[in-house]
Protein: 4Fe-4S ferredoxin
Amino acid sequence: MATEYVKLVDVTKCDGCRACMVACKNWNDLPAEPQDFLGTMQSHANVSADTWNVLTFVEHENSKGGLDYLFRHSSCYHCVDAACEKVCPESAISYTDFGSVVIDHDKCVGCGYCEQNCPFDVISLKEYKDKNGKEYRKANKCTMCTDRLEEGLQPACVTTCHPGAMQFGEKEEMLQKAEKRVSEIKERYPNATIYNPAGVGGTHTIYVLAEKPSVYGMPENPKVPTSAVLWKDYAQPIGKAMVGGVTMALVGAFVANKFFDKKGKEHEEDGGDRHE
Structure:
């Protein structure tokens, strides 16, 4: 079994320098994305197809009546059980041996189901034009610098983090460090916790948070949509065993349009709590 790796983000050490954002832009050759002034220290409202990680900023009144300035490195969580992978009708999204979740642009058809079903809102579609001027779309998001990992390097954001708010290593080691850190900061931050949500099988980007996830705009209990589980884990394998490929493709298109689009999501039992 391949060794699982995790990016550990300790928000209590982050000083808001945004070096992680710059490193990500530089390594992945992502274009600048001018933004309107947001009225805070935060430069971008959310991640996008051209900005794969964002430094978020929250002013929070703590339990002692004081004011805390909370920063958080925000990017793809790389879920162990990723909704985007489940709903992709072209199998364009897959897991790597490092635990990262990546998109194959050669297979992506820009349907948008991954964007609509991500419980963290970290996938976006980007518009492109071919040599004839025809427009098409491809999904984009953080890759956890899988190309760097394959060369024995760490993610660009991790290597540039000067206060040591991010680390990358084997899962068990990172979890142990997270637990130790939470115990160290509990006196100052009574609500300190580890964010590694079970509803998506855990994540390969885990956080040490000073406050509850919702304070940072993160979903408290994110889950893979029920329709995605039924389709990927039950209906699709059974269907492939019973019918031909062409028929299965037609069935797949029907199910995808019925359950994975925004209208279909309105019928989810849990309502699909989405924040980022």
Remarks:
- The first helix runs from residue 19 to 28.
- DSSP finds nine helices and ten strands in the chain.
- The domain at 1-224 is CATH 3.30.70.20 (Alpha-Beta Plaits).
